[in-house]
């Protein structure tokens, strides 16, 4: 509680049903403060539990400072205090930025590396369970100053270890892989090749209303099994053509046929090291 007291909130940088995110200052350092709405107390509790029980210090995971619960007159105030990233979320970043091949692959590879860390169980005293994020999307990924990503928002995450075989992660991991395919599709659209680039669009922008309901999405994705279209221009570029293959293997109808996030990370790393990708 002492930490929260000495943080001064400077500006609101995000607002939603979840609550709000602020840029804060503490000893001349910037930090991000997520203030949870009372309806979202469960997310605060889950994210706090995950960060405090699992070894989650990793360059691909949004850095955590502290959680704070203070009683503010009649109601409870819930804060999550994280590292601050000036570029904001990947969703924000892609609105205003176009990418070359290396920048596209750095964003995709670093985001994949963060998800690999979540999915990997580390056995031992200072280990971690396998974690399925369950809410992978460009608004929950932050872009760091060096053009790499880190994964945030663990409010819906579930854990699994060998011994307390709680849930079958096999299925859940595949949900993360499907969602990550959508994120790679959003990023690749913003990659300039042969003098062309696609506008930023959220997945399914052309088949659902803005701010779609759960049922709107379910009909498109589950019932009709729709998938985002791959822009024609991608087939004229060797890297984007390979990206379209990786992306489509994240979306197979049968979840068992989907690539693992580790295979995706390795493939992206190979593309990153190809000569035509280096500046
Ligand atoms: N999941 C979660 C939990 C706490 C803060 C956040 N958001 C952020 N974290 C760090 N830097 C940021 C942001 C923004 O939202 C926008 C700009 N920079 C997400």
Give a brief description.
By secondary structure, the protein is α+β, with helices and mostly antiparallel strands. The chain contains eight helices and nine strands. The site of 4-[(3-aminophenyl)amino]pyrido[2,3-d]pyrimidin-5(6H)-one (3WO) has 14 residues, from strand 1, strand 3 and strand 5.
Notes on the protein architecture:
The chain is α+β, with helices and mostly antiparallel strands and 279 residues long. 35% of the residues lie in helices and 20% in strands. It contains eight helices and nine strands. The protein has helices at residues 2-5, 41-53, 90-96, 101-119, 169-189, 214-223, 238-248, 261-272; strands spanning 8-16, 19-26, 29-36, 64-72, 75-83, 130-132, 141-143, 149-151, 158-160. The strands form three sheets. Strands 1-2-3-5-4 form a five-stranded antiparallel β-sheet. Strands 6-9 form a two-stranded antiparallel ribbon. Strand 4 and strand 5 form a beta hairpin. Helix 4 (101-119) runs antiparallel to helix 8 and helix 5 packs antiparallel against helix 7. The longest helix has 21 residues, at 169-189. The chain is globular. The relative contact order is 0.12. Bound molecules: 4-[(3-aminophenyl)amino]pyrido[2,3-d]pyrimidin-5(6H)-one (3WO). 4-[(3-aminophenyl)amino]pyrido[2,3-d]pyrimidin-5(6H)-one binds next to strand 1, strand 3 and strand 5.
